[in-house]
């Protein structure tokens, strides 16, 4: 049974990976859009309170099996990518 | 307009965060399951070739706006969590 079982699980894993890829990029687009709105408002883009609120919501909805520390670590990495993308956009705006 | 616009975008971002949370944990469950199947087969759990194949598929499907290096970085972090979880499971098995 087992190679078929393993192949099936691996196919599911690939599918989850692609859904994650899609969501991570979708998230980045939203962060870019938020950056543009904030820029129009002349508001500072980095907002540690908002980051805290996002993490609290994630924590409240987390059920495992990963431990919370690992989840927070991953999300902080994902948050960082969003911020870097906003910085790139800002640099592009400054260059033109 | 803009506070309403910002709130709407932030709600969408929270929603994407929770979808990501769900998928990251779902992925971890699959990795645990794969670990159990491999253990039954007496196969080594860490498989660098499989990791390469997963990254290749991700790369082939990536369209941005994040750059590929950032995407790979995040996925490598996500892969690490899965491996650590398998190690924990193995330790638990060894303790009983």
Automatic annotation (TrEMBL), chains A, B:
Coiled-coil region: 6-33
UniProt domain Chorismate mutase: residue ranges: 1-90
Recorded superkingdom: Bacteria
Protein name, UniProt field: 3-deoxy-7-phosphoheptulonate synthase
Full-length numbering of the shown residues: 1 to 96 of 358
């Amino acid at each position: 049974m087992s190679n078929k079982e393993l192949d099936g699980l691996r196919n599911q894993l690939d599918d989850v990976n692609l859904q994650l890829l899609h969501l991570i990029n979708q998230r980045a687009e939203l962060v870019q859009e938020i950056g543009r709105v904030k820029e129009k408002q002349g508001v500072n883009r980095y907002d540690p309170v908002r980051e805290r609120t996002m993490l609290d919501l994630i924590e409240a909805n987390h059920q495992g099996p990963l431990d919370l520390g690992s989840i927070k670590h991953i999300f902080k990495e994902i948050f960082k990518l969003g911020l870097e993308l906003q910085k790139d956009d800002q640099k592009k705006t400054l260059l033109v």
